[in-house]
Amino acid sequence: MNLSRLYRPVAALTMAVSLVTLAGCGAMVAQNPSGSYKPVNAVVDSPEERLFLKGADVTAYFTQGAFVQGKPEFRSAYEGVDFRFASAQSKAAFDQSPAKYLPQYGGYCANGVMFGIPWGGDADSWKMNDGKLYIFGGQGSKDAFLLNEKTNIALADKYWAEEVKGSNSFIQRTKRLVLRVPHYQSGEEQAKQVAAAKPKP
After folding, report:
1. Are 48 and 26 in contact (CB under 8 A)?
2. Which of 97, 94, 108 is nearest to 54 (CA)?
3. Disulfide-capable partner of 137 in 79, 141, 162, 188 (CB 3.0 to 4.6 Å)?
4. Eight-class DSSP state of 102
C-alpha cells in the first residue's frame, strides 16, 4: 500500500486550512458568530462586525418579493449577526419574529451548500420555494440548482444539517474543496448541463 497517496489529501487539507486562516481573519470572524445561527454569509462593515448579506433587507423578500438594500440607520442584531433594513417597519417586523425572515443555509449559496461548501451568495440572486428563501451565488449557480430543484434542496438540507450548521465556515469549505462529495460538479460542468437543458432555437 502506498501510504504517501493516503497522506496527500490530509496534507493538502492542513495546508489549505492554514493558508485560509492566515488570509481571512476578518472574514472568519464575520462568518462565524458565537450564536446558534452559524455559519453565516456576513462581512465586516463598520460598525457591524457581522453584516448579513452585505446589508440586504431580509424581510423584503417575503413582504415585497424583491431584493431591497437595507440602510445603516435601521439595524438589528440576532444571534450575534447584524442586519440592516430599508425602513423602521421592516426592522420592527424582523425584531418581532427574526427566524421567519432568515434565508436557508445561513444565506450562503444553496448550490454550494449542496456540495457541503458554505461559500458565496449574492443578495440579488434568490428564489422563494415553499415559503423558504434560497440565496445563490449568481444566475449560473441558480440555473444549475433549479435543473433538479427538489433533489438539490434535499442534498443541501442534508449537508447543512449533518456538516455545515454550527461549523466553522472556512474549515468546512476547505475540507469539502479538498475532500469532495461524490456528486460534486465544477462550475464548468454545471454550466454545460444548464446549456444542454436550454431549448434549442
Report:
1. no
2. 108
3. 141
4. P
